[in-house]
Amino acid sequence: MDDRRSREPWKRVFTVCGLLLALAACATSEASAPDGIFLPKLDRSNDEWPTALIAGQLVEERGCVFLEVGGTGSANEKILLIWPHETTAARTEMGQLRISIGGEVVGDTGSEVKLGGGLIGERPGEIDQAQAMIGEAIPVRCLAKGYFLTSGVA
Predict the structure, then answer these.
(1) Pairing mode, if any, of strands 104-108 and 112-120?
(2) At 116, is the secondary structure helix, strand, or coil?
C-alpha cells in the first residue's frame, strides 16, 4: 500500500510535464501568415534600417503581398516587400490581409500606406540579396521588378 502511494506523485509530475510540453508546442507553432500566403521576413530581428520612404497600395496577388506604386502618367509597378522578423498577416472579416509588425497594424490589402526602408539589390529584379536576407528562395509567383526592405509605417 505504501509503495502505491509513493508512485502516485510521479504520475502527477509526468502528467503536468506532458501538458506543459503540449502547451509550449501549440504556442510556438503559430503561423505568421495564412496558408498559401508568402510573407517574406528577415530571418532575425534588426535594429538598423534604411531611411527611404515609399508610398503605394498594399495588394495581394497570387499569394504574395506587393506594394503597388506608380506616378502620374506611368504604369504601376509591383514591389515585393521584405518585412521585419516580427511581422504577421491575418485575414480580416472582409477577406483582406491585415499586416502587423509587433502587434501594430501597418495596413490591410487594398489600403494606401507610406513605409520606411530601402530598395534591395543593385539592379531591378535582382533577388540574391533579398533571398539572403530572408533565408529562403522567393517563389516564382512572387518575383518582382524590385524588392523593398521595410521597417514599417513611416
Answers:
(1) unpaired
(2) strand
Separation of alpha carbons 39 and 83, rounded Å: 8
Dihedral angle of Cα 84, 90, 93, 97, to the nearest 10 degrees: 50
Question: Which pLDDT score, from 0 to 100, does residue 72 have?
Answer: 56
C-alpha to C-alpha distance for 7 and 46, rounded to whole angstroms? 50
Quick check: 33 and 100 in contact, CB under 8 A? no
- Give the residue carrying C-alpha cell 509550449: 24
Which residue shows C-alpha cell 489600403?
111
Q: What's this model's pTM, rounded to 2 decimal places?
A: 0.74
Q: What is the mean pLDDT of each run of 10 residues along the chain (154 residues)?
A: 51 40 36 87 76 92 93 75 94 95 95 93 82 94 92 84
Q: Is 25 exposed, middle or buried (0-12, 13-18, 19+ CB in 10 A)?
A: exposed
pLDDT value at position 51? Answer: 80
Q: Which helix (H) or strand (E) holds 97?
A: strand 97-101
C-alpha cell, 20: 506543459
CA angle 38, 62, 54 (to 5 degrees): 70
